[in-house]
Amino acid sequence: MPTRARHLARRGAALPQPRARRRAVVLLLAAALVPATALPATAVARTVSAEPAVAQTVTAAGPEHRAVALGTPRRPVAIPDPSRAGSLVAPPPRAPEPAVTAAGTLVVVNKQRPLEPLDYAPHHLGAVAGTDVELREDAAAAADRLLADAERAGVPMLPRSGFRSYETQVATYAHWEDVLGSAEADVQSARPGYSEHQTGLALDVLPADGTCQAFGCFGDTPQAAWLAEHAPDYGFVVRYQDGQEDVTGYTAEPWHLRYVGAATAADVAASGARSLEEYFGLPAAPTY
To answer: Which of 47, 145, 199, 223 falls 20 to 30 Å from 156 in CA-CA distance?
Structure first.
């Protein structure tokens, strides 16, 4: 020990404090005597940043440090619930539902994924405004918004087909089988128990004006172009797209909309996926 230090120790005097320690003590005393709100933000941060009594709140704008009185127990980190914070939207899970459920919208129905049970029927159907076409209530409300905005955009459309019961699909498939034969019917119509229309989440539309009043010419209409761009804004995707026949098992149907919900529809569009099979990473289903 240096001579001066030994001399001070013998006299009972305190040893000199290092300069950094003296500065920390001064700052801590200042924090205890002066309210945090009276200090500049930078001073508050310097005063408490090294102390355990700091709470961090995660917000949409980023972490925000707040001074807490010394000795107060650490408060838990508050993390916003993405489902309630409009600026924080959790990405939808990329996991298709294995079977139809009353509340689900992500079920994938194709030639390898039949409904369970085959004669499934959804609850809570509602009519699309001004029509007798029924969909699941959530899908019907979204369809109302889509059709109203399409009319304002100068591309009016009419819903042609929505929910079909198992019995209706039996008759529909039998008709096409009689007209086209079994092989061709399978690429134009779904067998009973394998149809998206049976979920109450699929909607077929046609132009409300113009010369095209049939599905065969729909792809060349302004309505088809508008749907391809704007359907995701309302929670729909164009389910059967051109060039996806080997994946979906059906010829292109630009009139066939499938409701998946706004978050998932936006994510499908952003991903560039051209089918739900591609989006969810499911095997192609060209045949039964």
So the answer is: 199
